[in-house]
Amino acid sequence: MIDKNSLRRRFSASASSYDSYALVQKKMSQKLIGEVKAAAKKQSNLDVLEIGCGTGYLTGLLLRELENPKLHALDIAPGMIEESSKKFGKIVEFRCEDVESANFECEYDLIVSNATFQWLNEIESTFSKLTGCLKTGGLMTFSTFGEKNFWELNEAFKKARLEKNSFDGARLGQSFYSLPELKLMLERSAKSIGLKCKIKLEEKMEYEYFDSSKEFLHSIKKIGANSKSDMLTNSPGIIKRTMEIYDQSYREKEKIRASYHCIYVTVER
């Protein structure tokens, strides 16, 4: 279970550094905006909801690529809302709220979200709520991370635990859904509210390279995605050995590699 209070604090604290480190997330936004442009087909005055607007990178793309959108943007972290508000002011209606507890009184032509849905605790019920907020013919498109995310880090952790004969069910970092799992949950959520939706999913691996595992973990901290509560192990020795194995075993051209498993979803009502 993700601690939303901790999540809110971490992302607020990282608002000023997020843009400098969230390079993969920016690539994901570019992919999403392609889906948005194809769906919009030069329509104007679309009612748009962005979930997890963060510092406003995707928000800016939506304003640039859509013709006079009525844009509503939501984020759980007040620091992120403050950062986005500085850029866009009253052009966008911002809400500082958790999408899982938020109520939406209107319907939208487009719901879009980048690298946010991995932070949901009740993913199916949230899908149902959002799908129900789409107008007939509306589109929800979002990106999230899949189960191969940070593959190298997790493999190094497994090897460190084997060396230490540790079989206590510990894990390093949060877990992520696979593409088939997400597809099934989306289908169930639409069915639960009596809708037949066209659902499309695709996945792509992205990679970043760092001088060391320490530098990689620092970059994760700078975007607010780190959480001590996700590191379910009581052994500092295993963590230390994990980083040693990572630095030794997962190098390419003198850099360590970090894999990002990006999943893209479109739901058409």
From TrEMBL:
Class in the EC hierarchy, top level: transferase
NCBIfam families cross-referenced by the UniProt entry: BioC
GO molecular function: carboxyl-O-methyltransferase activity; malonyl-CoA methyltransferase activity
Sequence similarity: Belongs to the methyltransferase superfamily.
Pfam families: Methyltransf_25
PANTHER family in UniProt: PUTATIVE (AFU_ORTHOLOGUE AFUA_2G14390)-RELATED, TRANS-ACONITATE 2-METHYLTRANSFERASE-RELATED
Function, as annotated: Converts the free carboxyl group of a malonyl-thioester to its methyl ester by transfer of a methyl group from S-adenosyl-L-methionine (SAM). It allows to synthesize pimeloyl-ACP via the fatty acid synthetic pathway.
Catalytic activity: malonyl-[ACP] + S-adenosyl-L-methionine = malonyl-[ACP] methyl ester + S-adenosyl-L-homocysteine
Organism whose genome encodes this protein: Andreesenia angusta
GO term, biological process aspect, one: biotin biosynthetic process
SUPFAM superfamilies: S-adenosyl-L-methionine-dependent methyltransferases
Record keywords, A-Z: Biotin biosynthesis, Methyltransferase, S-adenosyl-L-methionine, Transferase
UniProt name for this protein: Malonyl-[acyl-carrier protein] O-methyltransferase
Pathway: Cofactor biosynthesis; biotin biosynthesis
Gene for this chain: bioC
